[in-house]
Amino acid sequence: LRKAVYGLADSPRLFYEELAKLMRSLPRIEQLREDDSAWLLRGPDGSLQGMVVAHVDDLLFAGGSDIETTVVAALQKRFKIGKFCERSFKFAGLTLTQERGVSVRVSMAD
User: What's the pLDDT tens digit per position in 29-38?
Assistant: First the structure.
């Protein structure tokens, strides 16, 4: 064994293209113009109901039950989902911790 190969160089881009295609197919989802790897879930009245952010092949979901029934369910049908973490977890090198209510603490400390 001379070196390990964990995926193709274009694998992250191919995953993103499949993810973006799926997200575009979902109702009430809009992709942010400012960031191609972030999508908003709008309620029937246009109010913000949730958000999805992608970093390579890691996804961050924020929102209520609407995000689970609309987005997470569709993603689970299309992709093999590894694990879900709630309340306190690492994402893109940051530690995110949900405080009381809707507050979220973001830290880079290990």
Answer: 999 999 999 9
